[in-house]
Amino acid sequence: MIFKRLIACACCTLFTLGAFALEGDSLVTITALKNEYQFKWNGQTSRVEIKEKLSNTYVSNSYGVSYPVSEFYNDNTSIDAVTCKVDGHNLRSFKPTYTYYSQDDVFYSDAKICYFPMDMPKKGSIGTVTFEETLNDPRYFTSIYFSDAAIVQQGEVSLKIPRWMKVDIKEMNFNSFGIKKTTEYVSGEDADVITYSFANIPAMKREANSPGPTYIYPHLLVLCKSAAPGGKQITYFGSLADQYAWYRELVKNVAGDQAVISAKAKELTAGLTADMDKIKAIFYYVQDNIRYIAFEDGMAGFRPEKADEVLRKKYGDCKGMANLTKALLVSQGYDARLCWLGTKHIAYDYQTPSMAVDNHMICALNYKGKIYYLDATESYLSLNEYAERIQGRQVLMEDGDKYILNKIPYAPPLQNSTNQLSKLSVSGTSLVGKVNYTWKGEDKESILSGLNSIKHENTDKAMVKYLADDNNDYTINNLKLSSTANPDKDLTAAFDLEHKNAVNVFSKDYYINIDSQKELADFTFKPAVRKLDYWFAYKMNINSQTELDIPANYKAATVPADLNIVNPDYEFHISYTQLPNKLVYKKKLLIKNTSLPKKRFEQWNHDVEQLSKAYNETLILKPTN
């Protein structure tokens, strides 16, 4: 049963209730899936509810299968009944467990789970599971997925929509699945029944660095516009203006105790005179001192906690951190506003009024006619640097009772960079010398996130391990690491290097493989194994230069060929330059487009093989006489 609906998350991570958290399960096959949804008016509560009946029929593919059945719900959903039979019989001691669901980065949540084991003793045993549920707010009825954690051989999804209920349905990712749609009018209920039939839907599969499920799996995006039961008019999200108005109500009166906020802002900006210095002091304080924790709490999943409470607790979700940033800035007279957005993980934008389109909140600062987007959940990015996950995304910015729709700028690959300069010489069978590194942007953030997750006294040890890449022959001494406290500054490292066994000596000739890092070497994909596109975490810009002193009375007898691979998505460059008594090795690896579609795996594999081959080429130094 795993799941059928994507609940929109407002907590910076797309919290998919159900099968997205699971791998496709080969222990069972779903031979029949039948999910029914019906809009009904509840006169006692004066609200529209969605009644759901979700039924799966499973067949076991092995003997002695104990299949975990689970269904997720929350404070907007109630599970009214659960039934389970195996081979036509009720399960002995059948007792579902109902509890709160926890995930690593969810600190407090109203997400709940109902689960139980379904024991299927024989190969070919047939299990049937039915959940009956009620969803109490159409705004939260956002998506219906046709996939499940196991293969679906035959499936049917139906929606009964009374004519007094205005709903738009968008069909997403239907290509190649052969999904059939029928519509029937039921005159006695003055309702339309829309039915989707499908067959042989593959199991959901989670792969690292893959697009979010909204890009991949066939599903319906359900847009509840309005209702008029018995002439009573109810507006949901008929337009983006309606959605903003609802959001606007949620963020009223969340500034908190202004005296507390103002006092803290004055403390943070004491002694500063330049506006930008004050702005940075406030932004970097929230980045560095408020622990980011994702919340899932029904209505609170969309309403920020009061700014003074976030300040007091020293933790918050993206909304709380954005709200605190705004409150501190506003208290100092700056024009700061809240912004809603969907990260790159979500395929939709605000052309579709739905709670499914956004999962994140940040603060926008309008300063001297320029908009700065402040995402305090990115702990180590400086002002005006934007993480890959939000670049180019639409933002819904508050503007009183109206809204402003903007886009976060794209950042060039140069925002993120790793720059290395090595000056080495031959010493027996080792390369020795000095190495300097500089990291910027998300490269810097990635390293600092790792370093700051460990005890301070272990920082240098961890950095040495990272730089050596677990190579026991790569000996680092006298490491000097720059301060990790200032987001405006690049992260730098300098050290003395002894790279043992980097030189092979035959007779008097030196055989040297000059590149010890070999980024992306053998990083290829097997199309038969990798099913989904690959998304790099962020744009990559690696620049490495190694200056090798040629020993006296030696010359470079064999210098490997240069490599230049250029296409619109990435570039690989390697070059060797001979100078008097010196050879300069340069490498540049550039990932310009973070999305690598599966159809381009073959070209990528070919290019990476060429890069790996270039890495393995040997520089040969021979005596001059």
Automatic annotation (TrEMBL):
Cited InterPro entries: Papain-like_cys_pep_sf, Transglutaminase-like
Protein name (record): Transglutaminase domain-containing protein
Annotated ranges, domain Transglutaminase-like: 264-340
SUPFAM superfamilies hit by this protein: Cysteine proteinases
Coiled-coil spans in chain: none
Pfam families: Transglut_core
Signal peptide start-end: 1-21
Keywords, ordered alphabetically: Signal
